[in-house]
Amino acid sequence: MEEKLKHQDYEEEAERLDFTRKYMEIVIKASESDEATFRDQLKEALEGIELAESSMSYMSMLTNSNLLRRTSEEVKKLKKFYGKPYFARIDYERAETHQKEILYIGKVSLFDKETQQPIIVDWRSPVANLYYDGRLGDVSYEAEGEEYNGYLSLKRQYIIEDGQLEEIRDIDLTTTDELLQMSLSESASNRLTEIVSTIQEEQNNIIRADLNKPIIVQGAAGSGKTTIALHRLSYFIYTYAERFNPHDLMILAPNRLFIDYISEVLPELGVENILQTTFIDYVKACIGKNIKLKHPEEKLLAFINRDLKEPEKMKWLTDFKSSLRFRDIVDRYLLDILGTMLPKEDFYVSKFRVYSAKKLRKLIQYEYQYLPYYRRLDKVKRVLQNHVRTDKKQMIEKMTNFYDAKLDRALYSKGDAEKRKLFVSKALDKKVEELQELKKAIRSSVNDYMKHFPKHDLFYYYKELVTNREIFGKYAADLLDEEQIEFFCSHQISLSQSRLYEMEDLAALLYLQAKIYGISQELHVKNIVIDEAQDYSYFQLYALKSALDTDMFTIVGDLAQGIHSYRGIKDWGIVLDEIFPRASYKTLQKSYRTTVEIMNTANDLLKLLKLELPVVEPVVRHGKKPIFYFAGSNENMIASITNYINQLYEEGMKTVAVIGKTKEECIKLTKYFEQYSNLRVQCLKENEEINKDEVVIVSSHLSKGLEFDAVIISSVAEQFEAEEIDIKLLYVAMTRPLHRLAFFGNSPSVFLLDYLKPDLFDVTETMNEPIR
Ligand SMILES: Nc1ncnc2c1ncn2[C@@H]1O[C@H](COP(=O)(O)OP(=O)(O)OP(=O)(O)O)[C@@H](O)[C@H]1O
């Protein structure tokens, strides 16, 4: 501490911090109290403080309390960050004016309204980009399309705790980012945190990339994808503060557990009231019905457990339903559905032709192209109703005139008087009858006409497409062979017989819903963040884009963790070329989460996959090598894991997870823990929150996206095979820890360690050996 306090500017900086906090306090008070109370409070607050930093005198504060007033939203923020108003400073000299500016960067912005001087600059403001982006020396930044040049002479970081200045660090070209190192060596809290003070340049480039363009990020495990995506949202909200409506934004996460995991960081970043959901829930909301869905992980488990009857065919089917070729089939079908909505008969009211079928077809096909099909029909109905309303008088007049003329002719014609009388009386009756008929038709003809249009629900349409061999075969003829068509339809028929849908049906359902009926306004978000996007299918992404009619997506994922690759994305190129052609593509290769030792081991495992992905570079932070323990009996194994975990706790680790390959393995592990250990464990489920003070037992696929101080990968019954899906699951599990990784099993080969370089990890030979 002594050492740290020695920074030559410590006194000055401590004074500045004091001033800032007093200023915040005054602003808060001015905003929250009336004039008189404020004056009293101000006197109290200013006692003993030198306002050297401020250009605003005591008097002007007193007389101009209105200049201090802020909105309640701003006051809320000031209160929140009162304990830590800023985390960094930059000294910047503008090229045009040669004036030096000292800018303090924090999570809130505060200006002296009188002098227009910034007291705290928001980390998302254009000039703050210099802190993240600029080296010392000549720099530039962009604001509202203009470039500003200048000279950066200082970048300084602060550690402030509860209003106390703990540390000051100056960053120059030679020092590495010590603050980053410090923050990475901290413990995990079961929750994602904000990283505004240590955002790295490559990450900053993603956060601040053009907000009017979609972005796709391929990022290694632990490279900060989730974190960065949320910071980008925060940046978006700041940049478009005036036009921004939280209901325009949506985060799509893999499951409820994950939503809970990110929930605390959002308010911290000023991201509030936005829709956070899963793809499944979103589609259910869009179609407005709670369909019965086969458990989305069922197929994954079946692939992992290799207990599918025809695995190759099933893989093909899943892949096909996820592809843009299936979308093509749905598109062909949609064209035909539209065909059934094009009327052949003109629209008549009684004998009057009010609107021709040809004109109606033109409206439906072209004029209302921007609308979903059934909404086009609603429009048509309104058009017809309007026409009837305006033509009504004319039609009645025409008919009246017609009969009156007839009557006139009869009355004034020569001939038999009796016959004429009869004719006139008949004509009069006819006139009354026809007029009545006409009036009735005026009331009912639109509804009658509209009855000729089809009226089916979404499920009818989907079922017709996928279970009717003839119909499906017609659209798929040039894309699939007969055997494939047969397999496809019989699979769908059996699902339909049990009134079930599977995950891969959702893209098509969403797509059809949007095209035929539309999506309700409150679900029509404009800006979407997708995390773990590697598990989305091409069709899913396409359906979302098409349904929401926007390409403003932030898509982050990692193909190396694509455990659903049988249906997920295998190539970002396709996403770029065929779905988001406007998108920029970025990669994050550095991993911030874990130590060099753990990352090197995980990288070695990944080599087995021969993916064309660059090797993940760990940020230099060392720790112990991963270690393998021979497990022995179940009881012995649980005893030594318990022993190991207790040691981890003693070393200061806070969160520990035991990861098993599958859910079944985790259920077994939980049972053994309950039997043989006094540690409290939580067998994590998808829709649960993580309990902070229990050991988490979680399956490898569910652990995706999460992180823990230490991870123990255990095997009591199942082992990882040298196959793609298992390698990816193991890779996911191995990249979860921040600090420590251990394996407990009966042989290193259970975790494929026999494929890895032996010097990357340690092995304990016997159970008797003391656990390190
Ligand atoms: N610049 C940074 N400063 C401090 N911590 C960082 C930084 N970048 C990332 N981290 C930390 O690294 C960890 C991993 O981040 P995150 O979970 O966002 O990565 P990810 O790419 O989504 O990982 P995965 O794909 O494995 O789920 C988090 O603890 C995060 O706080």
From TrEMBL:
PROSITE patterns xref list: UVRD_HELICASE_ATP_BIND
Methyltransferase listed as a keyword: no
Q: List, alphabetically, the SUPFAM superfamilies matched.
A: P-loop containing nucleoside triphosphate hydrolases
Keyword ATP-binding among record annotations: yes
Which Gene3D superfamilies does the UniProt entry name for this protein? 1.10.10.160, P-loop containing nucleotide triphosphate hydrolases
Q: Which Pfam families match?
A: UvrD-helicase (PF00580), UvrD_C_2 (PF13538)
Q: Domain of life of the organism in this record? A: Bacteria
Alphabetized InterPro entries for the sequence: DExx_box_DNA_helicase_dom_sf, DNA_helicase_UvrD/REP, HelD_bacillota, P-loop_NTPase, UvrD-like_ATP-bd, UvrD-like_helicase_C
- This protein is called RNA polymerase recycling motor HelD
Which species is the source of this protein? Answer: Heyndrickxia acidicola
The lineage is: Bacteria, Bacillati, Bacillota, Bacilli, Bacillales
Q: Which gene name belongs to this protein? A: helD
